[in-house]
Write a structure and sequence with these properties.
With about 300 residues, the protein is α/β, with parallel strands linked by helices. It is built from nine helices and 14 strands.
Length: about 300
């Protein structure tokens, strides 16, 4: 965090969005009319879940960044229909979400064992317990939050934790009309703006800081050169911020931007190259009927 705030432009890791309030706001975002990724991915999962279960034969499901595990239930249902659902491992930074999801799923699936992990999967993949046959998932557009180099590094480390023959399911937001993408991150209700500003409240808690979220405007714009959305908090006026826990004093200029998230968009060739560099072989490529979102099913090579 310190390095990011001292860089130019300033930046904050997007993992700090997800305290209890941030997780609740994101769940609101997923149901907004402008936010197509969740609807497109859910519809796609409903179409292909049984096929994924048949191909993988997985008895264990590991979800990185599980959140509310809404889409997870579609795959668990398919595994249950095949008599395969034995273990679910929700991995998330939010203890509240992991506890809630674990309790819900144990009640909904009496034969299912749940092993929750509260940690940042980018740094704590070793917390995943051994097991097989297994399907590991990274759904939503989470992979897009990382630079190409960071994404490949994450996939390589994940692959090293998996057994030979294990499968990996990756969600990828596809390159499409720019206006459609930008609208998804600039909703009329202002929920995404509030979600964005909430990251400053989280930083304040962690660092004993005094960021005033109301001094910042939300901005989300598409970078055509890098094929990604970039989300910023832009200062309305010059001011000073003290982060006592970091021993850091920041002088924020008027219109100075703090980057809080990137969300890369993909096509099939880009996803395939990324998976291969990470140690996986692409086995199936699924897209929704409108070509908004893709699910890439890969296997450890």
């Amino acid at each position: 965090m310190r390095r990011g705030l001292l860089s130019s432009p300033k930046r904050l890791p997007s993992k700090y969005f997800y305290d209890e309030r941030g997780s609740a706001l994101f769940e609101e975002i997923t149901s907004l009319p402008e936010y197509y990724p969740t609807r497109a991915e859910m519809a796609l999962l409903l179409d292909v879940a049984d096929e994924i279960s048949r191909i993988t034969g997985a008895e264990e499901l590991v979800e990185l960044g599980a959140g509310a595990a809404t889409k997870t239930r579609v795959l668990l249902d398919a595994m249950q229909r095949a008599g395969l659902a034995r273990l679910f491992v929700p991995f998330d930074v939010s203890e509240t979400e992991v506890r809630r999801v674990s309790e819900e799923l144990v009640a909904e699936y009496p034969e299912l064992h749940v092993h929750g992990i509260v940690a940042d999967f980018v740094h704590h993949l070793t917390a995943i317990p051994p097991g097989a046959p297994r399907l590991v998932m990274l759904l939503g557009s989470t992979i897009g939050n990382y630079s190409p180099r960071q994404a490949v590094d994450l996939l390589r480390r994940l692959c090293a934790r998996m057994a030979s023959g294990d499968f990996f399911l990756l969600g990828a937001d596809l390159i499409k009309d720019i206006a459609l993408i930008e609208n998804a991150y600039n909703d009329e209700a202002g929920i995404t703006a509030e979600f964005n500003r909430n990251i400053l409240r989280v930083v304040n808690k962690i660092t004993d800081g005094d960021f005033d979220p109301l001094l910042f405007e939300h901005s989300a714009v598409y970078n055509r050169q890098q094929e990604r959305i970039e989300m910023y908090l832009v200062a309305r006026q010059p001011h000073r911020v003290l982060l006592a826990g970091l021993g850091l004093e920041l002088h924020i200029g008027e219109d100075e931007a703090i980057r809080t998230e990137v969300s890369c968009k993909y096509d099939r060739s880009r996803v395939q190259s990324m998976l291969e560099a990470g140690g996986f072989q692409l086995e199936r490529w699924f897209t929704d009927r409108d070509q908004l979102f893709a699910l890439a099913l890969a296997q450890k090579t």
